[in-house]
Design a protein that fits this description.
globular
Length: 84
């Protein structure tokens, strides 16, 4: 399995959630978001990772996914910044 543009778009949505405050939701606005982001939010909803097709809140599974996505982003960003 490789990262597809669709999976990357889902990861990008997951990393937008504030993990310090699980009561803070997210809204993907149809008039300003890209079609890729809108579709990613719908897929995350279909996978039961978020509570609404246009964002909402993380479910318990979504919280785990967002934690992993944000941790991976942190690791990759730090590794990329370190000199070889």
């Amino acid at each position: 399995m490789s990262y597809t543009p669709e999976l990357v778009a889902e990861l990008e949505i997951l990393v937008l959630f504030n993990l310090d405050n699980t009561q803070e939701g997210l809204k993907v606005h149809h008039h300003t978001a890209t079609p890729l982001a809108i579709a990613a939010a719908q897929r995350l909803y279909d996978k039961e990772l978020i509570t609404q097709p246009d964002g909402g809140y993380l479910t318990s599974g979504g919280l785990q996914a967002a934690q992993h996505a944000q941790a991976l982003l942190t690791v990759l960003a730090v590794t990329a910044a370190e000199p070889a």
